[in-house]
Amino acid sequence: MSQSIIHKANSRGAADHGWLKSYHTFSFAGYYNPERINFGALRVLNDDFVTGGMGFGEHPHDNMEIISIPLEGDLQHKDSMGNTATIKTGEIQVMSAGTGIYHSEYNPNPEKPVKFLQIWLFPNKRNVSPRYDQQKIDDQTKNEFVQILSPDSNDSGVWIYQDAWFSLSNFEAGTSKNYKIHKEDNGVYIFLLEGSLEIDGKTIETRDGFGIWDIANVEIKALTNSKFLLMEVPMHF
Q1: Which residues form the Pirin N-terminal domain (predicted)?
Q2: Which domain does 116 fall in, by range?
Q3: Is residue 106 located within the same domain as residue 125?
Q4: 114 in the same domain as 19
Q5: The dihedral formed by the CA atoms of 10, 229, 231 and 16, expressed in degrees to the nearest 10
Q6: Tens digits of per-residue pLDDT, 56-110?
Q7: Which of 133, 135, 132, 134 is nearest to 80 (CA)?
Q8: Is 87 exposed, middle or buried (0-12, 13-18, 19+ CB in 10 A)?
Q9: What would the pLDDT profile of 10-51 be if each residue is shown by its tens digit?
Q10: Last residue of a domain, one of 73, 102, 136
Q11: CA angle at 193 for the pair 190 and 199, rounded to the nearest 5°
């Protein structure tokens, strides 16, 4: 029998530093909730807003798969591997922190904010050589699960060291699609960027999160025009 959980938008941890407004679905920085540590391998889901010209100075990471998805504006990246890049809306960035990496993230536009998702997953391989990748993603196709991340470097989207599959979807009102799990014992976490969805008989609204596991597939119905990120991740790792 399936199990599920809803994390309402207004139940998330919140931080307001003036230049940065961040909402934390799971425990992060000054927000700690022992019942909201992770969803399987999904450890961090931050919904960030950074004002023009501001950002995160150089800081370290290790043994974590880190994914950034701009929703509005641009994000400038620099790291200790020598990468300098601007990640634009309609792109996805991934870093395997592995044995250790330093990086910084800034909003390069002085007059325009950047809104982006920062996501961390526990890896299935530790102490790998750090790596970086950035790709354009298809965010225009309607009524499909558009894959943007997987464990396979030959598959659609970026790849990471984890048996995880991400899809970014735009569903028109009334669309109903069945998502099939790629790997047994994986669960699905859906973060609703805008709109209203019905999943497993439950309704979620903009910026709500919905996790479901012990399933082989899940039916997702758009009650209104909706955009959402679907993250399939191992529940045990």
Answers
A1: 13-121
A2: 13-136
A3: yes
A4: yes
A5: -40
A6: 999 999 999 999 999 999 999 999 999 999 999 999 999 999 999 999 999 999 9
A7: 132
A8: buried
A9: 999 999 999 999 999 999 999 999 999 999 999 999 999 999
A10: 136
A11: 40
